[in-house]
Amino acid sequence: MTTSALRPIGPVHLASRFPPLEAELLTLLRGLHPDDWSRSTACALWTVQDIAAHLLDGSLRRLSFQRDGLSAVPDVPIDGYDDLVNYLDRLNAVWVTAARRISPPLLIDLLEHTSRQVAELFAALDPEAPAIFPVGWAGEERSANWFDVGREYTERWLHQQQIRDAVSAPGLTTREWLHPVLDLFLRALPRRYRDVTAEAATELRVEIDGAAGGDWTLRRVEDAWRLYGGASGAPAAHVRMDQDTAWRLFSKGIDPARARELVSIDGDQTLGAGVLGALAIMA
Q1: Three-state SS at 261
Q2: For residue 20, which of 160, 187, 169, 213 has the smallest C-alpha distance?
Q3: Which of 126, 159, 212 is nearest to 53 (CA)?
């Protein structure tokens, strides 16, 4: 077992990755056969066309709320995390249903037009300034722009990957694409373990195999869990999985029972098993 010194996790700056990510999406969509647009995906009851429409909705909301100052106040009371998830699910469902009246060629045109403007918006932001939206799945009530932008990158990468899976296209899973996703997804762990008590300095190591993987350690510090990069030599639990299992696990893209078959846990089984329920999406 290899070990490395623990290091505090820091910002992940991904604004520059949006133009190439969106270029990959547009190339993918333009190459689809007409039948591909109605293929089922891993994203609930959505088809390929539905996911493309959802991505367009994300761009339109970003530009309207963040760039143009349109009010983003919900039309219903939001009293906690579950209320927020339900509200977002409703917004998503309403849009996707209406967008089924948009043709695939027009969807592509609108995605190209709006994604370029979103990339310009993100590139102009001060990464350390307060974000318009906090990263709720990480347990934050206030987030810096770099984290909000990073969260947006993970969502767009994820939905593109779901389309790629549905049409049997090669995934964007080399280190340049996937490692930032995994690095940000792991930041869901402190919220996941917020109600788990343990002695100070208790450590949980998460090792992800593959070119895009790495080591992360969740460490009990005073009355909270903090995430670090790297690994120490004696964690209370050691959770190990490959990179494909990891991104699917943190995005609700794999059945929990199947995930347990693919994930190894050494040491404290109860402590390690908490990783199986971590989510880096609003769900």
Answers
A1: helix
A2: 160
A3: 159
Listed in sequence order, the residues at least 6 apart from 103 whose beta carbon sits closer than 8 Å to its beta carbon are none
Return the axis-axis angle of helices 145-166 and 18-30, rounded to nearest 10°: 20
List phi, psi (to 5°) of 189.
-65, -45
Q: What is the pLDDT of residue 108?
A: 98
pLDDT recorded at residue 83: 92
The CA-atom distances, in angstroms, between 213 and each of 172, 243, 274 are 14, 6, 19
Q: Which amino acid is at 142?
A: R
3-state secondary structure of 18: helix
Cα 226 to Cα 190, 191, 200, 205: the distances in Å are: 6, 10, 11, 12
* Two tokens, residue 6: 């623990």
The pLDDT, as a whole number, for residue 119 is 98
pLDDT in the model for residue 4: 62
Q: Which residues have a Cβ under 8 Å from the Cβ of 220 and sit 6 or more positions away?
A: 198, 199, 200, 201, 202, 203
Q: Is the whole model's pTM more than 0.90, yes or no?
A: yes
pLDDT, position 75: 86
Residues of the chain with confidence (pLDDT) below 50: 1
* DSSP for 20-65, written as a single string: HHHHHHHHHHHT--GGGGG-B-SSTT-BHHHHHHHHHHHHHHIIII
| Domains of the chain: residue spans and CATH | 15-172 (1.20.120.450), 185-277 (3.30.1050.10)
Q: What is the pLDDT of residue 256?
A: 82
In whole angstroms, give the CA distance from residue 49 to residue 38.
6
